[in-house]
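Hi support team,

I've been running sequence recovery on a batch of backbones for a student project. Most finish fine, but this one hangs at about 90% for roughly twenty minutes before it completes. I'm not sure whether the input is malformed or the queue is just slow. I've pasted the structure tokens below so you can try to reproduce it. Let me know if you need the job ID as well.

Thanks,
M.K.
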């Protein structure tokens, strides 16, 4: 067995040619051995539209059949949130269900990967989940333990798109045609979440103009990342032409969302305000509604001024690092009502049939926002006024020649902010690693109260792409923000970094 494996911080991710079919089969065997240790007897398997997904799915199905599992298989490309719903639904009858989602999210076309949930629809990551989640799978992958054959395997082909739409609309309190008169531009970037979102929006009554709606694993217009600078320009321009109420962009597997209008894309911290407000109202809250301030987790890139608006809603913002599985585990551990990442991930606490999960549901998120816009037509303008108080770069992504160069470049960036006398934070108050460094000057992150010429941002090495640095910066002063962005780019350019989506 080779020393390498495809495991990253919160899922498995690899370039298609990095691993042979034999190595992929071995990896999936390790996943199922881990499942057996958890008492798993049922497996759900789903995929997005990536070119490498079919062969990985074939290996997964054959391995699960050999092991004797009951299998619920969704062969058509679907979104990752729908795949979580598949596991959610299967778990009602089969509590010991493990879910496999074959996807590489927003990564370039030559990537593929695997997201895993265990009984309770609990997402696992590295050091996250029962027995350490992917840490345990890594041990099993390298130790050579084989997957024992089993008897009584059953395979069921399923398509839950219709049921997933009904569930999401009901959870959001949206009925058929209740969003009539709203005009929406939906840019799916050729990802697998486009068709199901288009159908749900149409059923809700919205007039939808689609862009890049056909799933295409070649991603002909580049990496399917709607947060990349310029990626949503065509959708924004179209919104101006048709006077759209909302622009929606989603990524390759439909779990990353951006929102905007004819004036541009909004920051997640600000656009989440009406979404959180509707949840807090209690109309669509699943689970127990507790008195007092509700905890909502935010990642280090969420704008401090947005956090100050959250507190006006009686929200207690809770800082946590990036990592989808880790965030969802932290939601369970802290009782947080929701979580927001500036990268466009929105996490919810959802319940049905006595089972409560913490997961993304993009349809639920979108419908909550559209409902808020329907009830308050001037809402986007109000949010725009808030956002215009802030300069924000969007994600700055550079790929270096190798990991050593990446680390040197990161250290140079940190040295820049040390010289600026910025506050550097690499862990939460509870001592949890932020998987990167928050830098801030002139503003209190706890209160969002700004001083003069403030800025705040986040630096990290990508956990699922080779030698990539991700940076983000916001400021209350446009000139200062542009100056600091250029200084960041100058340093990355000096290491011969290549700008990527």
């Amino acid at each position: 067995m080779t020393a390498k494996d495809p495991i990253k911080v919160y899922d498995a991710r690899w370039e298609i040619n990095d691993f042979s079919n034999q190595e992929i089969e071995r990896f999936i065997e390790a996943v199922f051995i881990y499942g057996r240790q958890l008492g798993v007897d049922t497996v759900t398997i789903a995929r997005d539209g990536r070119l490498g997904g079919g062969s990985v799915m074939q290996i997964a199905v054959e391995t699960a059949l050999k092991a004797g599992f009951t299998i619920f298989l969704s062969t058509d490309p679907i979104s990752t949130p729908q795949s979580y719903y598949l596991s959610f639904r299967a778990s009602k009858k089969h509590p010991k269900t493990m879910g496999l989602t074959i996807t590489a999210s927003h990564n370039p076309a030559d990537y593929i990967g695997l997201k895993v949930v265990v009984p309770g629809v609990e997402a696992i990551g590295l050091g996250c989940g029962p027995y350490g989640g992917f840490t345990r799978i890594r041990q099993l992958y390298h130790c050579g333990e084989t997957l024992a054959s089993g008897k009584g395997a059953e395979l069921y082909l399923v398509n839950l798109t219709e049921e997933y739409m009904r569930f999401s609309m009901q959870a959001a309190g949206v009925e058929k045609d209740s969003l009539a008169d709203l005009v929406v531009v939906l840019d799916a970037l050729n990802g697998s979440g486009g068709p199901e979102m288009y159908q749900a929006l149409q059923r809700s009554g919205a007039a939808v103009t689609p862009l890049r709606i056909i799933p295409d694993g070649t991603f002909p217009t580049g990496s399917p990342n709607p947060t990349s600078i310029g990626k949503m320009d065509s959708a924004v321009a179209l919104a101006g032409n048709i006077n759209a109420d909302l622009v929606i962009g989603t990524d390759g597997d439909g779990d990353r969302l951006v929102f905007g209008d004819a004036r541009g894309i909004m920051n997640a911290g600000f656009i989440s305000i009406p979404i959180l407000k509707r949840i807090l109202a209690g109309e669509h809250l699943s689970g127990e509604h507790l008195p007092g301030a509700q905890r909502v987790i935010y990642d280090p890139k969420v704008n401090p001024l947005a956090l100050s608006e959250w507190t006006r809603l009686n929200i207690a913002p809770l800082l946590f690092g990036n990592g989808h599985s880790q965030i969802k585990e932290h939601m369970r551990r802290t009782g947080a009502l929701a979580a927001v990442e500036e990268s466009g991930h929105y996490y919810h606490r959802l319940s049905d049939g006595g089972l409560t999960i913490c997961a993304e549901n993009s349809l639920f998120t979108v419908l909550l926002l559209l409902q808020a816009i329907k009830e308050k037509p001037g809402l986007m303008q109000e949010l725009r006024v808030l956002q215009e108080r802030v300069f924000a770069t969007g994600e700055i992504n550079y790929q270096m020649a190798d990991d050593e160069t990446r680390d040197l470049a990161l250290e140079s960036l940190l040295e820049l902010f040390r010289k600026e006398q910025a506050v550097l934070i690499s862990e939460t108050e509870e001592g949890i690693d932020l998987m990167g460094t928050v830098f801030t000057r002139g503003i209190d992150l706890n209160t969002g109260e700004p001083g003069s010429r403030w800025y705040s941002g986040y630096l990290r090495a990508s956990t699922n792409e080779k030698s990539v640095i991700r940076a983000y910066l916001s400021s209350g002063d446009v000139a200062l923000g542009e100056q600091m962005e250029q200084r960041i780019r100058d340093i990355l350019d000096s290491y011969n970094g290549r700008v990527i989506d």
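--
Follow-up from support: It reproduced on our side and the slowdown came from queue contention, not your input. Residues 233 and 264 are 8 Å apart (CA to CA). No action needed from you.
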